[in-house]
Structures are given as structure tokens and as C-alpha cells.
Specification:
Structural class of chain C: mainly alpha
Distance between the termini of chain C: 15 Å
Shape of chain A: globular
Number of strands of chain A: 15
Chains: A alpha/beta (425), B mainly alpha (295), C mainly alpha (317)
Low-confidence stretches of chain C: none
Number of helices of chain A: 14
Order of helices and strands of chain C: HHHHHHHEEEHHHHEHHHH
Strand order of the largest sheet of chain A: 7-6-8-9-10-14-15
Number of strands of chain C: 4
Low-confidence stretches of chain A: 1-45
Strand content of chain C: under 5%
Radius of gyration of chain C: 19 Å
Number of domains of chain C: 1
Helix content of chain A: 40-55%
Order of helices and strands of chain A: HEHEHEHEEHEHEHEHHEHHEHHHEEEEE
Helix content of chain C: over 70%
CATH architecture of chain C: Orthogonal Bundle
Largest sheet of chain C: 2 strands, antiparallel
Oligomer: heterotrimer
Shape of chain C: globular
Number of helices of chain C: 15
Radius of gyration of chain A: 22 Å
Mean pLDDT of chain A: 88
Strand content of chain A: 15-25%
Chain lengths: 425, 295, 317
């Protein structure tokens, strides 16, 4: 079917503008990294680029974290473009905003796939948006690298042969945490669960852990709506239940408000509080005083650069370019992009089958230690960390919010089995 | 015990409801004032709330003095309100009654995004002033001193507002204008100046509500949108244009939310809408509202 | 009204017939089709009857979930699924209308908002086992339809769905035109202008308003049903009050005092959003500012202003 360009040649203009921008960025990047290159390559004779469709939730409550995903992916793209591109061709990182809405994600996915005809896909931040993106990519056999938390991407019916999931699943997150909490914090738990898919998935996973570990008591759960600003009315019930550990799914703004209000009402002295997921910018928004003494889980924290060799170059490069350390989601973006583009490089082709073969069963270490791809479901297995907020007097450097208390090693038994996820064999 | 909850917990929950409600009251009062006198539904009211919080942050950064912020913020926010009224709302008088609603609906996007552009998407923590940190033992529960301060100061502000409206001649004009604007004009009073003032007062109230809320919630661009719908519900339940209604409805809603969370947390958010629908169906103009009365 | 203005709806249908070839990609054209229908349905209430509803997302959403749920769980045929979606919207409107129309003005608006949020909550929390909660209802099947003995899937290609939806839209536009330019439509406008006067002429205005509410929900629900089929997903955010706000903005932008204005508004709104969000994440700033400018300086909306200018130009001739 014919597809005339929009009146002012919109499509063509945006690509030219992009290339100019990429050249400028490349020039700046090469100045920073000291690798001469961009100025020598003549963009006027640009070869047909490889298109990477980046769909991120750039507006909405988690915009900051998703921005980091975009930035980190861009870093990887620039690394390649500085060295002459991927397979000798420049990579064009086409960025679209899914606004954390499912239908917007579906619409943008259609744009990336139908109009821009992307070769590779990466994204998003929300579980529902990445699933919508995956649906479109599957239709056209475009390899997708999922870089956020969701239980759905590595299981039937959402999974596709070219779907890869660099992010944790809520299931694994809960299992990894539960083990640590049971051993270190206490055996009487109370849950504060948000009313969204992630919250439900986390809770269900914890319930499964509890079923297998009768020594732990589930004292109850309270639900909260996402974006609710006030949490004090939950505290009475929580305090009355007398838990040893309060496990909460507070994320984003909810994370901030909960941390603050729990601190104000003195909950910290009555029980240990564990945030299922935390990240750098949420901690910043809450403030050191609120985060002090709070426990939290994460897949990556920048201070790990002191103990993990591959973390340091990533953290330093990100910090240098954007004035602060990366969030964990930036890590997902970085790791995911490296794996996706690296697979194409090793395969020597964009053929999805060849890309897939490069990833299945592969072990790698891009920025956070050993990771590997489970063959049946393309799920990345990786280490999980438990953090604790430092007291204000101990937080010497800027951004140094947490102590790394412990780690749960990567382990396939933390995730549902291949059979449970709907895979045979 | 009732339903497995001790009496102490019930009283605690009641008190929680009261303080939650009072945060809404300040916002709702400003909204109600603006509607009562000008029949303008200020969809940007939450944005003024947010602006107040950011102004408070700014002032704290400048002086480190919370009390100075408390004085500065309503003035700064009210000033912004006056500018907005003069240039965007006033041109709409005499036109369709829905136009100011639509305008302010667009305005809130502009305000929120502008704040995002200037201060970034990530929020900031707002430290509780050191004089007000720490818990107070109320006998049945430990309660943050700061929140008690908020209760006290909200009551004070409402009282001052009431005095202004009931006991001053300007207040009389405002109340008269709410009841019968034509009559007030016939008496030779330039109502547009009064509306100008009332919009400033209303938004100033939103601003101070924002800076008072900041230590409890932090400061971020979306903080107003979250509050706005709740504030509307309070105003509508109380009766648009009724100061008394806004106060009572605010406290009532806070208590209802508080107890619903205790017994049936899943319904915590939607209970306000159910309550509003029920009230409106039984009492058409809200609990204390009558066409254009401000009592 | 001039010959051309009266026939503008035909012009609209013509433009929509070739829209996918004018715009850069089919998906945005389909989006315009769906939301244009939503806005026009909404305008039956706002522009013609003078009722500002802030809860119309409820009817769009009922259409989406009605169609989605029936296609997924009841495994009905495509047309049946769409019909169920529309019926769900109309049924919802019967109840909601009965309750909300007791009040006027801002109270009416707030009541519709409350009901909209109620439906959102029901889909998010109460029935989330069926609706998929905030993930939405995914994997909505699109059964093939048979036309003249030949079976095909309407989502075979982006263009094929566009024209499937286009047929619904074109028919809706024609039907709406019929309704709004009939005596019934005249009564609606009389209610908007002066309800008491209309009552004194002997019209049961409450009944009339309720019927208008149903018509409005019908077309909004149809738009929602098409949405579910196109994306093969019932998205939760379609029930959120921001979707109601979108309908309001599109209608005002296009011109609530005209017949095709809302459709024009939907097109412009979606295109602006699409283009701007490529360059900046602050697209809401621009959309909000543009909307404010229109409320202040172009209250007739884009199409309304154009029509007015055209009329004045013809008068000069």
C-alpha cells in the first residue's frame, strides 16, 4: 500500500534532524571518551541505518526512571555509532512515549512497527505498556528486549520466540526478598499492597513463599490505591497487627509518601519496614531522614561499583554524561541494550532467528556481575540486592543513600519453572 | 472491641480522619469561595496548591525559615492567582458559564508542565521545621507534632476567614455578591474588583494548604492533581459556595476515608465518589449549599 | 446555513475515506476515527443539549470492556461483540442518566465524574479477575467475518481495519446528522437555550435529556468497542477521568456549536499530541496552552471559526 509522507515531509525531516543530532552527540561523546571517529565519518553518505525502536513511559508518574532507560540505551547506541555502527551501519534510536497507558503503547508500537519499520525493539517501564509493545513486535517477528518488571513477558501467552526479558519478574523479586527477610528481619509479616498488577503479582508470589514456609506468619494485608497521597489511616491497623516486618510495594511517589509518613508516625521504631523495590531518585525525593533505617530491594545500586568490576565503567560513564549516578532502571536499559545490540553484532545479521541463538543460554556480565539467559523463556537470571537506608550522619557523599546489606544470588529456582510458565521440555 | 478493633484504635482512626480531612478543608474552602461568588469552577486549584508547595521550597532554600515561608507563600500564590484572574478568567465573564471551567482545565496542564520544566520531574523532600518535629503522646496513640500544628493552624485560618466574611464590610460585600450579584452592582459596587480579590484569596488559601502539606508529603509536580478531585468532592458534598459546608464535608470525608481504610481498605479510594453520589442524590445542592449562599 | 456548510458532514466522510493516505501512518488515522466518533457522540450532549458531562469515559469504557469481555469470555462473533459493547454503554447510560440528570450545571458534571470514577474502580479492583486490572484485558480475539460468502479478518492489515471502522463511522455520522437535524434535535437545542421555555412549550425535558444521554452513550460506546477490537485490548485508562477530559477538549477545540467540529477537534488534538510528543515530553504544556487560547480567543473552535469566516466572506459577495 502506498503511504504518502505527511504534508511537510515530516518523516524525512525527522530522520535528517536525528542524524545531525547524532553527529553532534557523537562528536561530543568522542570528545569525552577520547575516541576519534565521528568527525571522520561523513554522515552525508549515511548508510541505511539500523532502527532501534525505543518505547519508554516518558510522561507519567515514573517518568524519571524511564528517562534513565532511554539515556542508558542511548549510551549504548552511541558506543556503537562511535565505533562505526552496528554491522557497519549507524544505529538510529527512535524514541517514542507510551505515557504509561496501554492503548498509547499499542498506538506507538504500531507507529514504530508500521511507519518507522524498526528492526529491533526495547522498552518500557510499565508492565502493561511493555506487553502491549510486545504484542505488536510479535506480529512482525521483531526482537524485543523488555527492560522492566513484569510477570507476563516470559510466560505464555505473551511470550514470543524473539521476546527477551532483561528485567526481573515480580515473582523472582518476591522470592529473592522473602528468603532474605525470613532469615534476617523476622517471621511475622504484614503487607501493604498497591492496587495494580505489579502489586498483585508481588503479593501472590509472597503468598507462594509463605505456603512453602510455615514458620512465617502472614498477619494480613492492606490495599492502597496508586497515587494516594495519604497513608496515615493505614497505620492503626498495621500497628495493631504487631508485625516484625512490614512489606510494602510502594513505588514512585507512593514510595516517597509512605517513607515520609511512616517515619513521621514512628513506625520505624515499632517494626522493620521493607520496600519491595526502591531506586535512586525515589530515595532522593523521600530524603535521607525518611529513608534512614528502611530496608529495600533492588537489582542494582550505583555504589555496587566498589565491588563489581563491570559496574564502575557504566556508573562513571553515566555520571559523567548526565551529572548523577544511574538509577536501577538505567541499568536495565544499559544491560538490555548491550545484550540486544551485542547479539546482532555476534550474529552478524538482523535475522531474528540468528539473534535469538546468540542469546539463549548465554552467560554475560555487562554491568552488575554474572547474568545469564534461561533458554526456555528468555528470562535474564541475575543477582538481587537488599539495601538499608543510612542514617543522615552516615551518609557522607551525595547520592549515597544506602548500605548494601546482602545479596541473593541468581538462581533459576527463584523463578517459576518452565513448565509452570507454559513451556514444554 | 468492635469488629476486632480496640476502642483505642477507633479513636486513633477518628483522629486520623480529622487531620486528613482538615488538609482537604483548606483547599475546599478556597474552591468553594471562588465558585460561590464567581460561579467559576477552578480546575487549576490543585496547581495553585502545588505552586504553594514549590514556593515554600524556594523560600526555605532562600531563608531556611519555615515561618517566613508561611507568610510568603499565600502572598506569592495569591499574586499568581490575581494575574491569572486578570488575564485569563476575566475576559470570560458574560460568556458561557462553563468557559472558566474549561479554561482552568487547560491552565492546570500549563502550570504543572511549567513547574516540571523549571524544577524537574522528580520531587523534593521538604523537611519538617525542627521546632515541630517529633511525636506527641496523645494517650491513645503517638501523633506527629507537625500534624497537630497543621490542625491548629488550619482552624486558625478558617476562623480568621470567618471573621473576615462575617464581621468586615468587605466580607459583607462578598457575601452579598454571592447571594445576589445584581443587587450589589445596583448599589454601585464594582463587583469585578471583588472577584479579583476573591480569586486571589481562594488561590492564596490553596497555596498555603500546599506549603502546609509539603512536610507531610514532599513536593512534586503532580501533588495538586491528586488532591484536586478529592477537593471537588468535598466542595460538592458540602455545597458549592458554602464555607461551613466545605469545613464539615472535609472533615466528614476524611473520617469516612479513614474508617473505610480500617475496615475495608480496598474501597479506600472509591468511597469518596460513592459518598458524593449518595449525598447529591439525596440533597441536590450538597449538605449546606443553596443557590449562591455563603454561610 | 450555506449549501456547503449544510453538506459539511459529507465532506468529512470524504476526507475520512482517504485519511490513511494523507497521514504518515494508518494507526493515527484509525485513532482519529475512533476518537472523532467519541467526540461527536459526546457533543450530542454538550453542544446540542448544553450538558457538560465529565464522565463520558464511562461509556467509552463500557463499550471497550463490553466488547472485549464478550469477545474473550463469551467467544461471540465480531459484530455481536461490538453490539454487546454498545449495549453495555447504553444500559449504563440508562442508569447513570436517570441519576445524574436530576441535577443541573456543575452538579451534573460532578455526578458524571463520580460515576466515571466508579466504573474505573470496578474494572481496576472489583472485577480485576475478569478485566485484567490495570494491565487491561489483553488478547481480545477478532473473529473473522463473512461477507457474501467470503471470510476475512478485519485486522488482516492496518488498512483493512481502518475501512471496517470507517464504515461504522460514516454510518454513525449519517445517523447522527439525521437525529440532530430532526425535530428531536431542535428540542435538544431549545433545552440548551432555555429549558424552562422549552418546558412551557409542553416538552418533557427530563425525558428528552435522558434520550439524548442514551444517544450520546451509544456512539461513545461504539467508539469504545472499535477501540477494543483495533488494539485487541480493553485498556483501563479509557475509563479514567482524563479520557473524559480528552473528549471535552477535542469537542471544544473543534467547535461544539457545529456538527462536524468535534471530529475536526479530535483530529487536530491527536495530531498535535503525536507530533509534539516526538520532540518533547512537555507536550501537555502545548496542548494545555493551545486549549486555553481557544477558550479565550476562538470559542467557536477551529471549525466553528472557519465556518463563521466563510459565512462572513460569502455575505460580502
Amino acid at each position: 500500500m502506498s503511504n504518502k509522507e505527511f504534508k511537510k515531509g515530516e518523516g524525512r525531516m525527522s530522520r535528517r534532524t536525528f542524524l545531525k543530532g547524532a553527529a553532534a552527540l557523537g562528536g561530543a561523546a568522542s570528545a569525552l571518551t577520547g575516541i576519534p571517529g565521528i568527525s571522520r565519518i561523513s554522515w552525508a553518505q549515511a548508510k541505511k541505518p539500523i532502527k532501534l525502536g525505543g518505547l519508554y513511559d516518558l510522561t507519567g508518574p515514573f517518568a524519571t526512571e524511564s528517562e534513565d532507560q532511554r539515556k542508558a540505551t542511548q549510551m549504548v547506541v552511541d558506543e556503537y555509532n562511535n565505533k562505526g555502527g552496528l554491522l557497519g551501519r549507524p544505529i538510529e534510536h527512535i524514541v517514542r512515549d507510551s505515557k504509561l497507558k496501554t492503548d498509547e503503547a499499542a498506538l506507538k508500537a504500531k507507529e514504530l512497527v508500521e511507519k518507522e519499520k524498526v528492526d529491533l525493539a526495547i522498552g518500557t517501564l510499565g508492565a502493561h505498556t511493555v506487553v502491549a509493545y510486545n504484542i505488536e513486535c510479535k506480529k512482525h517477528n521483531i526482537p524485543l528486549m523488555g527492560i522492566c518488571q513484569t510477570d507476563d513477558l516470559n510466560k505464555m501467552p505473551d511470550w514470543g520466540p524473539y521476546t527477551f526479558h532483561e528485567g526481573f519478574t515480580p515473582y523472582m523479586t518476591s522470592q529473592a526478598e522473602a528468603r532474605w527477610i525470613a532469615k534476617n528481619l523476622g517471621t511475622k509479616w504484614y503487607f501493604l499492597i498497591g492496587q495494580w498488577a505489579f502489586g498483585q503479582q508481588i503479593y501472590n508470589s509472597y503468598l507462594q513463599f509463605l505456603a512453602k514456609n510455615p514458620g512465617i506468619t502472614n498477619l494480613g494485608k492492606s490495599d492502597y490505591p496508586l497515587g494516594g497521597t495519604e497513608y496515615s489511616m493505614h497505620f492503626t491497623k498495621i500497628i495493631d497487627a504487631k508485625p516484625e516486618v512490614l512489606i510494602t510495594t510502594g513505588f514512585g511517589k507512593d514510595h516517597t509518601n509512605q517513607a515520609k509518613q511512616m517515619t513521621d508516625f514512628g513506625l520505624k521504631s515499632k517494626m522493620k519496614i521493607f520496600f519491595v523495590l526502591t531506586d535512586l531518585m525515589m530515595a532522593k525525593e523521600a530524603g535521607q531522614a525518611s529513608m534512614a533505617g528502611m530496608y529495600a530491594g533492588t537489582h542494582f545500586y550505583w555504589e555496587l561499583q566498589d565491588t563489581i568490576p563491570t559496574a564502575k565503567p557504566f556508573v562513571q560513564a553515566f555520571w559523567k554524561r548526565w551529572g548523577r549516578p544511574p538509577t536501577g532502571y538505567g541499568g536495565y536499559g544499559y544491560g538490555g541494550a548491550k545484550e540486544l545490540l551485542g547479539a546482532v553484532e555476534r550474529a552478524g545479521a538482523l535475522d531474528p532467528e540468528k539473534v535469538r541463538k546468540q542469546l539463549e543460554g548465554r552467560s554475560y556480565d555487562n554491568y552488575k556481575g554474572k547474568q545469564w539467559w534461561r533458554k526456555c523463556d528468555h528470562q535474564s537470571m541475575q543477582d538481587f540486592y537488599v539495601l538499608k537506608g543510612r542514617e543522615p550522619k552516615d551518609a557522607k557523599k551525595e547520592w549515597a543513600f544506602f548500605d548494601v546489606l546482602g545479596k541473593t544470588d541468581a538462581d533459576e529456582s527463584l523463578e517459576r519453572t518452565c513448565a509452570e510458565l507454559g513451556f514444554k521440555g | 472491641m468492635i469488629g476486632g478493633i480496640s476502642y483505642a484504635s477507633l479513636i486513633t482512626q477518628l483522629f486520623m480522619g480529622l487531620q486528613i480531612g482538615l488538609v482537604y478543608v483548606l483547599l475546599a474552602v478556597g474552591l468553594s469561595l471562588i465558585f460561590g461568588l464567581m460561579t467559576v469552577v477552578n480546575f487549576a486549584h490543585g496547581s495553585f496548591f502545588m505552586f504553594g508547595a514549590y514556593m515554600g521550597l524556594f523560600m526555605m532554600g532562600l531563608t531556611g525559615n519555615f515561618w517566613a515561608s508561611l507568610v510568603f507563600v499565600p502572598l506569592a500564590t495569591g499574586l499568581l492567582g490575581l494575574v491569572v484572574e486578570k488575564f485569563t478568567v476575566r475576559p470570560l465573564y458574560g460568556r458561557d458559564l462553563n468557559d472558566p471551567l474549561l479554561l482552568t482545565f487547560g491552565l492546570q496542564f500549563v502550570m504543572v508542565e511549567s513547574v516540571r520544566l523549571i524544577w524537574g520531574t522528580t520531587g523534593f523532600p521538604f523537611d519538617t521545621p525542627s521546632a515541630l518535629t517529633g511525636p506527641v503522646n496523645l494517650g491513645f496513640a503517638l501523633f506527629p507534632l507537625y500534624r497537630i500544628f497543621v490542625i491548629v493552624i488550619t482552624v486558625l485560618i478558617i476562623f480568621l476567614l470567618w471573621v473576615f466574611l462575617e464581621k468586615t464590610s468587605l466580607g459583607l460585600i462578598i457575601r452579598g455578591g454571592t447571594r445576589d450579584s445584581l443587587m450589589v452592582r445596583v448599589l454601585g459596587i464594582d463587583l469585578s474588583k471583588i472577584w479579583f480579590l476573591v480569586f486571589g484569596i481562594g488561590t492564596g488559601l490553596a497555596g498555603i494548604a500546599g506549603v502546609l502539606a509539603a512536610p507531610m508529603r514532599g513536593v512534586h509536580p503532580d501533588m495538586g492533581i491528586d488532591m484536586l478531585i478529592q477537593a471537588f468532592v468535598v466542595v460538592v458534598v458540602g455545597g458549592m459556595g458554602s464555607l461551613k459546608g466545605a469545613v464539615i464535608a472535609g472533615i466528614l470525608i476524611g473520617v469516612v476515608v479513614s474508617f473505610t481504610t480500617l475496615f475495608y481498605p480496598m474501597m479506600g479510594e472509591v468511597i469518596i465518589f460513592i459518598s458524593m453520589a449518595v449525598v447529591l442524590l439525596v440533597r441536590p445542592s450538597g449538605l449546606f449549599g443553596e443557590e449562591g449562599l455563603l454561610e | 446555513m450555506s449549501f456547503l456548510s449544510a453538506r459539511s458532514y459529507l465532506g468529512l466522510i470524504l476526507v475520512l475515506a482517504v485519511l490513511p493516505f494523507i497521514l504518515p501512518y494508518e494507526a493515527i488515522a484509525t485513532q482519529i476515527l475512533i476518537f472523532g466518533l467519541f467526540a461527536m457522540g459526546y457533543n450530542i450532549l454538550l453542544g446540542y443539549t448544553g450538558l457538560l458531562s465529565f464522565g463520558h469515559a464511562a461509556f467509552f469504557g463500557l463499550g471497550t470492556y463490553g466488547a472485549g469481555l464478550s469477545l474473550v469470555y463469551l467467544k461471540v462473533g465480531l459484530f455481536t461483540g461490538i453490539l454487546i459493547g454498545v449495549s453495555a454503554a447504553v444500559l449504563g447510560a440508562m442508569g447513570v442518566g436517570l441519576l445524574c440528570l436530576k441535577r443541573k450545571g456543575i452538579y451534573f458534571a460532578m455526578l458524571t465524574l463520580a460515576f466515571g470514577q466508579l466504573f474505573y474502580f470496578l474494572a481496576l479492583v472489583v472485577f480485576d479477575n475478569y478485566t485484567g486490572g490495570d494491565n487491561g484485558l489483553r488478547g481480545v480475539p477478532v473473529p473473522p467475518i463473512s461477507v457474501g460468502g467470503y471470510e476475512f479478518s478485519v485486522i488482516k492489515s492496518p488498512l483493512s481495519f481502518y475501512y471496517f471502522a470507517f464504515i461504522f463511522c460514516a454510518l454513525s455520522i449519517l445517523i447522527m446528522h439525521r437525529i440532530l437535524h430532526s425535530p428531536f434535535g431542535a428540542v435538544l437545542q431549545s433545552i440548551r437555550e432555555n429549558e424552562k421555555r422549552s418546558q412551557s412549550c409542553g416538552y418533557n425535558t427530563n425525558r428528552v435529556k435522558w434520550v439524548a444521554f442514551l444517544f450520546s452513550a451509544f456512539f461513545s460506546g461504539l467508539a469504545g468497542s472499535l477501540h477494543a477490537v483495533y488494539y485487541q485490548l480493553a485498556a483501563l485508562n479509557t475509563l479514567y477521568w482524563t479520557n473524559s477530559g480528552a473528549a471535552v477538549m477535542m469537542t471544544i477545540l473543534g467547535g461544539m456549536g457545529t456538527f462536524i467540529g468535534p471530529f475536526v477537534g479530535a483530529g487536530v488534538f491527536l495530531l498535535i499530541e503525536d507530533v509534539i510528543s516526538v520532540y518533547t515530553t512537555s507536550w501537555q504544556l502545548f496542548v494545555g496552552a493551545i486549549f486555553m487560547l481557544f477558550v479565550l480567543f476562538f470559542p467557536l473552535g477551529i471549525w466553528g471559526t472557519l465556518q463563521e469566516k466563510f459565512r462572513l466572506w460569502r455575505l460580502k459577495e
